[in-house]
Amino acid sequence: MSGMQIVFLVAAAITLVSAVLVVTLRRTMSSALLLVLTLLGVSVLFVLLQAQFFAVVQVLIYIGAVATLILFVVMLTRSVMDTSEPQVHKNWWLAALVSLVVFVALVVTLSSWQAFPQVQRAIPADSGENLAALGKALVDPNGFALPFEVASILLVATMIGAVYIASERKGEE
Amino acid sequence: MIPLSWYLIFSAALFSIGLFGVLARKNVIGMLMGVELMLNAVNINLLAFWSYLYAGVNGLVFVAIVFVAAAAEVAVGLALIISIYRRKRTVVPDEVDGLRG
Amino acid sequence: MTIQTLVWLIPLPPLLAFGLIVLLTHRRRKLSHGLAIGSAGVSWLASMLVIIQALRMPKLAQTPIVSDIAWLPLANDPIRIGILVDPLTVVTLFFVSWTVLMIFIYSVGYHNFGQPDGEHDRPGLPPKGAHITDANGQAQHVPSVEPMYSRFFALISLFAFGMYLLVVTDNLLTLYIGWEVMGLCSYLLIGFWYAKPSARDAGMKAFLTTRIGDVFMLLGLAALYQVTGTLNFRATLANPAVLGELAAATSPVLGLSWAGLIAILLFIGTIGKSAQFPLHVWLPDAMEGPTPVSAMIHAATMVSAGVYLMVRFFPLLTAGWQPGEALTPAMQVVATIGTFTAIFAAVIALGQNDIKRVLAYSTISQLGFMLAAVGVGSFVAAAFHLVTHAFFKALLFLGSGSVIHGMEHGVMHTGEHLDPQDMRNMGGLRRTMPLTFWTFLAGGMALAGFPLVTAGFWSKDEILAGAFNGGNWVVFVTLAVAALLTAFYTMRLITLTFLGQPRTTAAGHAQESRREMTLPLAVLAFFSVTLGWVGIPQDFPLIGGILPNWLDEFLGGMLLTHGEAALHHSNIPLWTSLIVALGGLTLGWLAYRRQAAGQVDILERGLGPVYSLIQNKFYVDELYSLVFIRPAVWVSETLVAKWIDLGILDGILHGIANFGLWLGRQLLRWIDLLVITNTGNAVASGTGKFGGWLRRFHTGRIQQYMVMAMFLLILTGVLFYALVLV
Prior knowledge:
A: Four Helix Bundle (Hemerythrin (Met), subunit A)
């Protein structure tokens, strides 16, 4: 077992355990903090996949922005959080069953792929993403310029919409 | 050398955990966190395939767009939570049933 | 900047104006209409530059201005969008840019810009007027500004964007996008005064009715893509090989050729959009919107778009057909619907008293003329009438808006309670509103086809000649009768409105409209008169040949078969147009010049019950209500809601619960008494829980729905594996 594999297994184990805790813990605050750990684990896997850039983006956006936002909201809405009773529905076993079936189905589907063991890395061991190519593709009219612009419009719309929805208006209690 | 299957099984597991979170959590913030886990699983999958099979730029573009969508989703979702919280004093979706038939 | 870039930019300014008005300037009226008119002006300027440039190109029909880009880079075969300027685009762009600009300017006056806010006005209702004290200290009732002024300009800007997009595009997909953008805008604009139930209903009716056509159009689009693999106009319509193939291949429907099938599907889209029978019902109701909207929808843009589509797809419609031969089935369908609509709507127009409704039905009728021309193979005539009609109908609608405004002014002055749109309340307006009168007269004469001097005469003459020369007698005679009726109701309209003596005090106090409104009228009147001179037939008696028949050369060059079968000229259609136009006008004047206030309409006296049939539009609306709407309501309210949902579904649930209760009771009584009390209790409560568990599926909780959705997904996956893969 190579060093890389050990790193993978440790990171994956931490990620999965903390992910399970994220969805099961009673205190939303703890869940949110463990979410940060999960996201960090995922970014480690990104590095192992030689996607260093996206590992950084993961830390910046997910941990820096998304998880922080969630933490803020958790703190803002703390007064109605009731931790005395379970934070999952009574019929949580149904959800667990569904999730398990999905997992098993995915694994079974994967294992039915014959060519699996032969797959080798397409990325050379010492390189990462070709960021120049990615950047060009995003603004190239023959590449992804339109999806890129649509995404930016989406972000603007989101920003406006979020401000509008969350802003306090006169006349409300 | 890490086999591709490890990544895929990991992402399947993370996806299922996230799905459980979305389906089972009472609290809408918990549901949102589940969605985040699922999106992360998708990204792992995309990057794994990029890394092992298609070294081109297309997979990366997908990942970037998923990031954008996730950020947008969280911003709007949380704004909605704040708005609902302000009116109803709750973050439990089952108590928000203004549209129930 | 190349000419291609300029064409790309034509649709964009109105879209930009829409965004800016909605997001930034909706509180500032002046800025909003400035943006809208400015954007329309920029588009107009760009259009004029493109048109001038295009007219200089000697072989425009063979080598049009084209440019395209890959739009959606999917797999190996990206979907491309682009622009195309060929002769048809040039003439369409010409009338669209002019009428749009004029309507924008007119709207400023129509919505009383600069007037005070009304005390009782609120968004969603037409302005009711304001009470002010003038300089002499006298209280006055004056028109007030529209409360949603900026919103109006935002919406018509979006509308203009849709039309420009539709005109300059080079493929059916973007045309469809423009088409649907207009559909949305027409819904929003017809229902502009949304607090009025009638306007709300009219908007919904327009949207739903045109949607019926659009579904078929989408099917046609899909079929075209399926068969040819492209939606580009040049690749399909200007390609004899593709057209020949389509005409030869038999489609699975009714034994039509693929060309015929696609053409008919697209034509159903046109039926909806251009308000042809049997989907014409939405257009008269659309008069609930503000008058500039009526002009926008019923003249310059939306209804023209339907005819434009058919003219554009003329090569596909007529694939495999040579001039002089019998019509193909698809052409017969188009010709039949067009001809029937022409006469049907003309008859209805005779019995309407609302000035805008007369014009609405006349629009339907004139569009029928164009489609009949397309159906009998007169490509140039259809396009010609499309252009001239756009100008004179925009003029007539704007003129009617001016009349209504003048009447409203009179009503405010006298304080009477009467309908300012009812022609029976008007009369004698030529004295108080001279500018409106003269321009309206020009438009009306063009509509009636007054010989030689008006544009409508020349284009209608071409259509009649096309039907006659093709040997389509039924079409020719029907259209001639429709033209006679057109002249008649036009004269009725003009006589009742402008001539004679005022029939009410309000009409006597009507006032000429503002300059923002009359200036567009004058411009449009100019085109309504002069535009016909570009298409005077070469062999017309006396004046033929003085001006070259430029339009025929210009547009006809687009057709692959042009010039092969020289049509022999006959004077019969010419005399027919002369007689029906002049005869109809004379009859109309004789019949209505003495119409007095409160007097029964002369046609009503003459026709009796038939007249009430006409006045009620042949009861088509009532028929649809009986055949479609009430059954649909019955199915949803009674069948589904009351019987299936409340009866069967709830019945099953209740039945299960009742059965459980019954079972529990039985068990309690028999087994409990006979066997063991505890067992009975346990079974009964178990059954009760089962009933409660069943009920839980109806909770309205999102997560349970998600669980159910996942279950179904898994089930589908399992079935897929079991049935397909194994």
